[in-house]
Design a protein that fits this description.
Helices cover 76% and strands 0% of the residues. The chain has 7 helices and no strands.
Length: 211
Protein backbone atom coordinates (compact mmCIF):
# COMPACT_ATOMS: atom_id res chain seq x y z
CA UNK A 1 0.00 0.00 0.00
CA UNK A 2 2.69 2.50 0.99
CA UNK A 3 4.65 1.82 -2.19
CA UNK A 4 1.79 3.30 -4.20
CA UNK A 5 0.63 5.92 -1.71
CA UNK A 6 -0.65 9.25 -2.95
CA UNK A 7 1.88 12.02 -2.37
CA UNK A 8 1.00 14.13 0.66
CA UNK A 9 1.78 17.69 1.51
CA UNK A 10 5.35 17.76 2.92
CA UNK A 11 4.11 17.17 6.46
CA UNK A 12 0.36 17.53 6.68
CA UNK A 13 -1.38 18.66 9.84
CA UNK A 14 -4.94 18.01 10.90
CA UNK A 15 -7.02 21.12 10.39
CA UNK A 16 -7.89 22.85 13.64
CA UNK A 17 -11.59 23.13 12.69
CA UNK A 18 -11.95 19.37 12.19
CA UNK A 19 -13.27 17.74 15.35
CA UNK A 20 -11.43 14.51 16.05
CA UNK A 21 -9.88 12.73 18.98
CA UNK A 22 -6.21 12.99 19.90
CA UNK A 23 -5.78 9.40 18.73
CA UNK A 24 -7.29 10.14 15.30
CA UNK A 25 -5.20 13.28 14.97
CA UNK A 26 -1.98 11.54 16.00
CA UNK A 27 -2.53 8.60 13.65
CA UNK A 28 -3.31 10.97 10.77
CA UNK A 29 -0.05 12.86 11.31
CA UNK A 30 1.99 9.68 11.64
CA UNK A 31 0.50 8.21 8.46
CA UNK A 32 1.07 11.48 6.59
CA UNK A 33 4.72 11.31 7.61
CA UNK A 34 4.85 7.68 6.49
CA UNK A 35 3.47 8.64 3.08
CA UNK A 36 6.14 11.30 2.74
CA UNK A 37 8.85 8.72 3.50
CA UNK A 38 7.23 6.27 1.07
CA UNK A 39 7.18 8.93 -1.65
CA UNK A 40 10.91 9.50 -1.20
CA UNK A 41 11.50 5.76 -1.37
CA UNK A 42 9.53 5.58 -4.61
CA UNK A 43 11.70 8.33 -6.10
CA UNK A 44 14.85 6.56 -4.98
CA UNK A 45 13.64 3.28 -6.48
CA UNK A 46 13.30 4.93 -9.88
CA UNK A 47 16.87 6.18 -9.68
CA UNK A 48 18.03 2.69 -8.71
CA UNK A 49 16.40 1.31 -11.85
CA UNK A 50 18.31 3.85 -13.95
CA UNK A 51 21.58 2.85 -12.28
CA UNK A 52 20.99 -0.84 -12.91
CA UNK A 53 20.27 -0.14 -16.59
CA UNK A 54 23.49 1.82 -16.91
CA UNK A 55 21.62 5.09 -17.43
CA UNK A 56 22.60 8.37 -15.79
CA UNK A 57 21.43 8.89 -12.23
CA UNK A 58 20.47 12.39 -11.16
CA UNK A 59 22.93 12.76 -8.28
CA UNK A 60 21.52 16.09 -7.16
CA UNK A 61 17.99 14.67 -6.99
CA UNK A 62 19.16 11.60 -5.07
CA UNK A 63 21.20 13.78 -2.69
CA UNK A 64 18.16 15.96 -1.98
CA UNK A 65 16.07 12.88 -1.16
CA UNK A 66 18.78 11.53 1.13
CA UNK A 67 19.03 14.91 2.85
CA UNK A 68 15.29 14.83 3.55
CA UNK A 69 15.58 11.34 5.02
CA UNK A 70 18.47 12.44 7.23
CA UNK A 71 16.80 15.70 8.32
CA UNK A 72 13.27 14.46 8.93
CA UNK A 73 12.74 10.71 9.53
CA UNK A 74 16.14 10.13 11.14
CA UNK A 75 16.15 13.22 13.36
CA UNK A 76 12.44 13.70 14.09
CA UNK A 77 10.03 10.95 13.06
CA UNK A 78 11.84 7.82 14.28
CA UNK A 79 13.01 9.28 17.62
CA UNK A 80 9.48 10.46 18.41
CA UNK A 81 8.03 7.08 17.54
CA UNK A 82 10.43 5.48 20.01
CA UNK A 83 10.05 8.06 22.77
CA UNK A 84 6.28 8.42 22.62
CA UNK A 85 4.34 5.83 20.56
CA UNK A 86 6.57 2.81 21.19
CA UNK A 87 7.29 3.60 24.83
CA UNK A 88 3.62 4.15 25.65
CA UNK A 89 2.62 0.94 23.90
CA UNK A 90 5.15 -1.15 25.85
CA UNK A 91 4.05 0.52 29.07
CA UNK A 92 0.38 -0.33 28.51
CA UNK A 93 0.92 -3.65 26.73
CA UNK A 94 4.23 -5.30 27.74
CA UNK A 95 3.58 -8.19 25.33
CA UNK A 96 4.49 -5.74 22.53
CA UNK A 97 8.08 -5.48 23.81
CA UNK A 98 9.48 -7.95 21.27
CA UNK A 99 7.74 -6.24 18.34
CA UNK A 100 8.93 -2.81 19.47
CA UNK A 101 12.50 -4.05 19.97
CA UNK A 102 12.47 -5.32 16.38
CA UNK A 103 11.21 -1.98 15.06
CA UNK A 104 13.78 -0.02 17.06
CA UNK A 105 16.49 -2.27 15.63
CA UNK A 106 15.11 -1.52 12.16
CA UNK A 107 15.42 2.20 12.91
CA UNK A 108 19.11 1.64 13.67
CA UNK A 109 19.57 -0.52 10.59
CA UNK A 110 17.82 2.09 8.45
CA UNK A 111 20.27 4.71 9.68
CA UNK A 112 23.18 2.43 8.82
CA UNK A 113 21.83 1.73 5.34
CA UNK A 114 21.20 5.43 4.78
CA UNK A 115 24.83 6.17 5.67
CA UNK A 116 25.91 3.39 3.31
CA UNK A 117 23.81 4.94 0.56
CA UNK A 118 25.20 8.42 1.21
CA UNK A 119 28.69 6.95 0.93
CA UNK A 120 27.90 5.12 -2.30
CA UNK A 121 26.57 8.34 -3.85
CA UNK A 122 29.56 10.40 -2.75
CA UNK A 123 32.08 7.75 -3.84
CA UNK A 124 31.94 8.56 -7.54
CA UNK A 125 30.36 11.27 -9.67
CA UNK A 126 27.62 10.43 -12.16
CA UNK A 127 30.07 11.01 -15.02
CA UNK A 128 32.62 8.51 -13.65
CA UNK A 129 30.17 5.93 -12.31
CA UNK A 130 30.26 2.91 -14.59
CA UNK A 131 29.54 -0.80 -14.46
CA UNK A 132 30.04 -2.16 -10.97
CA UNK A 133 29.87 1.24 -9.25
CA UNK A 134 26.51 2.01 -10.87
CA UNK A 135 25.15 -1.41 -9.94
CA UNK A 136 26.43 -1.00 -6.37
CA UNK A 137 24.58 2.31 -6.05
CA UNK A 138 21.36 0.75 -7.35
CA UNK A 139 21.72 -2.16 -4.93
CA UNK A 140 22.38 0.18 -1.99
CA UNK A 141 19.21 2.09 -2.84
CA UNK A 142 17.19 -1.12 -3.10
CA UNK A 143 18.44 -2.41 0.26
CA UNK A 144 17.46 0.82 1.95
CA UNK A 145 14.06 1.10 0.24
CA UNK A 146 13.13 -2.55 0.88
CA UNK A 147 13.87 -2.07 4.57
CA UNK A 148 11.88 1.15 4.79
CA UNK A 149 8.77 -0.19 3.07
CA UNK A 150 8.74 -3.34 5.20
CA UNK A 151 9.22 -1.26 8.32
CA UNK A 152 6.46 1.23 7.50
CA UNK A 153 4.02 -1.52 6.61
CA UNK A 154 4.68 -3.27 9.94
CA UNK A 155 4.02 -0.05 11.83
CA UNK A 156 0.76 0.58 9.99
CA UNK A 157 -0.56 -2.98 10.01
CA UNK A 158 0.54 -4.00 13.49
CA UNK A 159 1.69 -1.16 15.75
CA UNK A 160 -0.94 1.48 15.04
CA UNK A 161 -3.93 -0.91 15.34
CA UNK A 162 -2.48 -2.33 18.56
CA UNK A 163 -1.88 1.16 19.93
CA UNK A 164 -5.47 2.15 19.14
CA UNK A 165 -6.62 -0.84 21.19
CA UNK A 166 -4.27 -0.42 24.15
CA UNK A 167 -3.44 3.25 24.69
CA UNK A 168 -5.48 5.68 26.75
CA UNK A 169 -6.68 9.17 25.87
CA UNK A 170 -3.92 10.79 27.91
CA UNK A 171 -1.33 8.71 26.03
CA UNK A 172 -2.67 9.85 22.68
CA UNK A 173 -2.74 13.49 23.78
CA UNK A 174 0.98 13.32 24.52
CA UNK A 175 1.74 11.49 21.27
CA UNK A 176 -0.35 13.90 19.21
CA UNK A 177 1.32 16.94 20.76
CA UNK A 178 4.79 15.54 20.08
CA UNK A 179 4.14 14.70 16.44
CA UNK A 180 2.25 17.93 15.73
CA UNK A 181 5.46 19.82 16.58
CA UNK A 182 7.09 18.25 13.51
CA UNK A 183 4.98 20.31 11.14
CA UNK A 184 6.40 23.54 12.52
CA UNK A 185 10.07 22.57 12.37
CA UNK A 186 11.88 24.66 9.79
CA UNK A 187 8.68 26.34 8.63
CA UNK A 188 9.53 29.19 6.28
CA UNK A 189 13.25 28.34 6.14
CA UNK A 190 15.34 27.76 3.02
CA UNK A 191 15.41 24.05 3.84
CA UNK A 192 11.62 23.98 4.10
CA UNK A 193 11.36 25.52 0.63
CA UNK A 194 13.87 23.01 -0.73
CA UNK A 195 11.81 20.13 0.65
CA UNK A 196 8.64 21.57 -0.89
CA UNK A 197 10.38 21.78 -4.25
CA UNK A 198 11.53 18.19 -3.82
CA UNK A 199 8.01 16.92 -3.18
CA UNK A 200 6.64 19.01 -6.05
CA UNK A 201 9.12 17.28 -8.34
CA UNK A 202 8.11 13.87 -7.04
CA UNK A 203 4.46 14.72 -7.57
CA UNK A 204 5.10 15.95 -11.11
CA UNK A 205 6.94 12.73 -11.89
CA UNK A 206 4.01 10.66 -10.67
CA UNK A 207 1.51 12.73 -12.66
CA UNK A 208 3.74 12.45 -15.73
CA UNK A 209 3.69 8.66 -15.53
CA UNK A 210 -0.10 8.66 -15.48
CA UNK A 211 -0.48 10.83 -18.59
Amino acid sequence: MLAHATLPVLVATVEANVRCSAAESAVTIIKDEHRAIAAICSGLREQAALARRGEAVDDGFVASMLHYLRAFPERLHHPKEEKFLFAKLVQRHPVAQELIATLEHEHEEGGRLLAELEQALAGTSAERREGGAAVALGEAIDRFVDGQWNHLNTEEKMVIPLALEQLRDEDWSEIESAFRENAGVGRGSDEDEAFRNLFSRLMNMRVGRRV
